[in-house]
Amino acid sequence: MAKDMTLLWGSGSPPCWRVMIVLEEKNLQAYNSKLLSFEKGEHKSAEVMSMNPRGQLPSFKHGSKVLNESYAACMYLESQFKSQGNKLIPDCPAEQAMMYQRMFEGLTLAQKMADVIYYSWKVPEAERHDSAVKRNKENLSTELKLWEEYLQKTSGSFVAGKSFSLADVSVFPGVAYLFRFGLTEERYPQLTAYYNSLKERPSIKASWPPTWLESPQGQDMLKDV
Amino acid sequence: MAKDMTLLWGSGSPPCWRVMIVLEEKNLQAYNSKLLSFEKGEHKSAEVMSMNPRGQLPSFKHGSKVLNESYAACMYLESQFKSQGNKLIPDCPAEQAMMYQRMFEGLTLAQKMADVIYYSWKVPEAERHDSAVKRNKENLSTELKLWEEYLQKTSGSFVAGKSFSLADVSVFPGVAYLFRFGLTEERYPQLTAYYNSLKERPSIKASWPPTWLESPQGQDMLKDV
Q1: Which family, according to the similarity comment (chains A, B)?
Q2: Residue in chain A nearest B95 by alpha carbon
Q3: B153 plus B98 within the same structural domain
């Protein structure tokens, strides 16, 4: 089955990482994997554009079925391989509701993170304002405090209850990215505990960004968030 | 079942409308519905904040289960009431893949729409730039042309294939919002045909924004997009 699958991905990208974690969790490791370089602009190559007119990674294919949106690929894989590997959507209605709620709140977290980390990359120099940088950091901090509360209530190991789920698949890569960019452990103890606990999970370890392994030192952009 | 459900919503809001369409499609019309006013700031009321710390609409509850993210509520309702009303996730793997892909691409469409329509509301006056307004409009136009192509390929009635699905639930309210804000029919014939066809669907008619019925005249903000 996995031999029919092709994933084009970039190292460190949270959306790519989500798909890779699900492929690990569902025992679909035999997929065709191709690491591309954002720095070299390979996400705009003809190979990517033919699968993904947006020129983005991940670009994912199962046979002739194209699923480039990371949430779409994750939902599809869980649905098609429900009884293979680990179950990623809980049956219990209360746990399932919490899982969907946190999974989609994860998009807001990702957005507020991107507003800070990609600011200089996304906003042309003539349109940049210190006031916007400050506000984006405050918004990210407010968002992160909400997740601190959520994790306190679930007592820490998983983001939506008692078991690893698509909510963790969606949220963990962003959390790791935040720490990679200098989030301070002292200010976010629950997120730190969550990060430290999940980074040892086999599916996550196996898909850890190779560029992070090569140069373990991250950046300090978020040290004052 | 639906009597255990409460939806706090605002008229015209695409995320609120998504949940209302699913409730109609799944024959759950007996839910407790409370229309709140964004203009009066009722989305920041104590009632909303107690269900939704983000102070946003929709705020949705099924018993004690809270699902405020519209995509989360839609996924949950389809999962819990699979065999009730209309099936909103196709079984066929190819159709399902397309459905998830379009559903999540819908978030990008919503984002690019928001970047244009909410610009003055979101960006403080001292940080506004004509160049950003122009770029946002161009990005929205590029995005809409992609959807024109998608609709051409599916031959128009539904956004992800042969039947109405969660992809339409996710995308249609945004399309209606675009036309409400002045998108021109001449430039987007496929989106226009899609809009005209789906606006007659019973679930959509029954949940049409009451403020739009009261004052049918929209705005012309998008006339040059």
Answers
A1: Belongs to the GST superfamily. Theta family.
A2: A65
A3: yes
Q: Is A68 on the interface with B (CB under 8 A)?
A: yes
Residue B22 carries which side chain, given as an amino acid letter? V
Q: Strand ranges (DSSP E) for chain A?
A: 5-10, 32-36, 59-62, 65-66
Could you tell me if B112 and B156 lie in one domain? Answer: yes
pLDDT tens track for B33-87: 999 999 999 999 999 999 999 999 999 999 999 999 999 999 999 999 999 999 9
Q: How many CB atoms lie within 10 A of CB B56?
A: 21
Instruction: Say if B213 is an interface residue toward chain A (CB within 8 Å).
Output: no
Q: What is the pLDDT of residues A82-110, one digit of tens each?
A: 999 999 999 999 999 999 999 999 999 99
Predicted local confidence at residue A154, as pLDDT: 85
- Residue B156, pLDDT above cutoff 70: no
Q: Residue A65's beta-bridge partner residues?
A: A62
Same domain, B165 and B102: yes
Chain A residues near residue B97 by CB distance under 8 angstroms: 62, 65-67, 72, 76
Amino acid at residue number A113? M
Number of domains into which chain B is organized? 2
Cα A23 from Cα B73, distance rounded (Å): 26
Q: For residue A216, what pLDDT is reported?
A: 86
Domain closes at, from B20, B46, B80: B80
Handedness of CA A58, A60, A66, A67 (dihedral sign): negative
Which residues of chain A lie closer than 8 angstroms to B64, CB-CB? Answer: 94
Residues B22, B62, single domain; the answer is: yes
| % of chain B at pLDDT higher than 90 | 95
ipTM exceeds 0.95: yes
Predicted local distance difference test score (pLDDT) of residue A1 = 74
Tell whether A132 is within 8 A of chain B (Cβ): yes
Verify that B123 and B171 share a domain, yes or no: yes
Looking at residue A156, its pLDDT comes to: 63
Q: What residues make up the domain containing B178?
A: 93-214
A187 is an annotated ligand-binding site residue: no
Question: Among A37, A52, A80, where does a domain finish?
Answer: A80
User: Are residues A94 and B127, on separate chains, in Cβ contact within 8 Å?
Assistant: no
